Amino acid sequence: MQYNAVKTLLQETSKSMKKQGVDVVANYPQILADDALFDYYVDALSEGLESGIKEEFKSMSGLVREGILAETVYGFKPQAQLILPVFRKVWPALVAREALTVLPMDQPEIIRPFLIAVAKVGGVEFPLPDLARDVSSAKQIGVASNYAIAVPSTVDIIGTEGLSHADYHLQRDFQIVGVTYTVNGSTTVDVDVLVEPNEEGQFSFDVDLGTSGLVDTVFGSIDFFKGTVTVASSRASNTEHVTAITIVASISGAEEMVANRISFKHLKIRLNAIDHEVQAEWTIQYEQDVKAYFDMDVQAQLVDTFGNVIALDIDRRLINTLLRETAAFHPAASRTFHKIPPTSFALGRKEWYNQLVVQLNEVSNQIYVDTNIGVANTVVANPMDVAILKSTSDYAFKGNTTGGSFGSSPVAGVLDDSWKVLSSPVVPQGKMLVVLKPENPDHAVFVFAPYRPLTITPFPLGRKPVMTFLSRYAAKFIRHEGVGIIEIDDTNVPTTP
User: Fold this and answer.
1) Hey, is 303 helix, strand or coil?
2) How does strand 101-102 pair with strand 446-456?
3) Residue 21: what are its φ and ψ, rounded to 5°?
4) How far is CA 126 from CA 83, 136, 313, in A?
5) Bridge partner residues of 196 (DSSP)
6) Which residue, 24, 140, 152, 184, is most buried by CB atoms nearer than 10 A?
7) pTM, whole model, 2 decimals?
8) Ordered strands of the 378-381 beta sheet
9) Whole-angstrom distance, CA of residue 408 vs CA of residue 90
10) pLDDT tens string 323-376
């Protein structure tokens, strides 16, 4: 919403309120105090917004109203009537609104649960997905090359793994896959076998010792519920005999929970609203001439200027957090795109830019693998880098021009019918954020939680007279795996030696 559009909206809002018998300037405290009048006022201010954004703005305006009313204990300030028009400028322009999960807070500090999937294997709980672990079967504790049981002996497999006998037992997929025997009292020989116990857990088999037709009979039993293996042989007291067997076994939970448990739990996250201030100096003479606040031209200028500055300030803080923590905690979803094609690429730079879509697909799918929630659906970039996306074959402009100068809505378009593209000058050029914004708030990747979206402090801060706009909100990463970064490099693709 440019200056003229701001002025027009303020004028139309004033006319609309006069139809209700109230003057926005003279009766502003009454508008704030009366639910019906306030709803009418906010509805008039929201004129021109898309339906989804309009409903958000009207809902968030309730929090703004609470903040204004809370400040009236210090006396009503004429400047307070600027707050909602400024917020009307701020809200549609926020990248945070489009890219992140918005969870308004009714208190300055809350503990909010977020749903996560977990599995418990071997008594150890870990979040899902974990591709390095097999959660569909029991824990593998033996492999043919390195898990041996001496002959004769009784071995407590459950205890060896440090697990509770009350909670775990051996699965019936038990196998003997190898034997070790001695010849002439010193030579060791390893032989592959494949022996499975009967239903009662008993086993017996012969081993050819390879000398003069000697055979050793290995026998024993498995107590699946106690987790013990007992083994002996007929020639255990002789020089030539089987000294060890190698097994493969699996452990599961108690009988009523044979498979590893996969469950859902709530990750409790503390959200604290932090104060963020934007200040503007004014002279004592300017404050004395309060009618200036009520002049439509002055109001439009203030709303337009403050709205842009505040929106940029909020986005800058959150985007910097996204960039910093993603680089530190999710390097697997980082890629580099070289803007200049190699000399061997003959199709031109525009066609080369389509390779960026390949990078986006890789990062998006990495996010899917690491979160098990979904692929990324939002791209946040500097306007100079958005220009690259606009040159690709599958880019379509579907932006919203409602709301403000510096782009109003940050939506610049849609790429490949997969990613909403957001443009903001606060994103460093050469850094492209790839973000998953899930529909379900319980699956949130990053939370933007306004408490008092916008208010004006009732008194100057410090010795110098200032008008201080105060925004109080919490911001918290919930899943670092839900964001990736593509570096946009101005150099050629490196030549492979």
Assistant:
1) helix
2) parallel
3) 85, 15
4) 46, 14, 37
5) none
6) 24
7) 0.70
8) 334-340, 483-492, 431-435, 378-381, 419-423, 411-415, 395-396
9) 9
10) 999 999 999 999 999 988 888 887 888 889 999 999 999 999 999 988 888 999
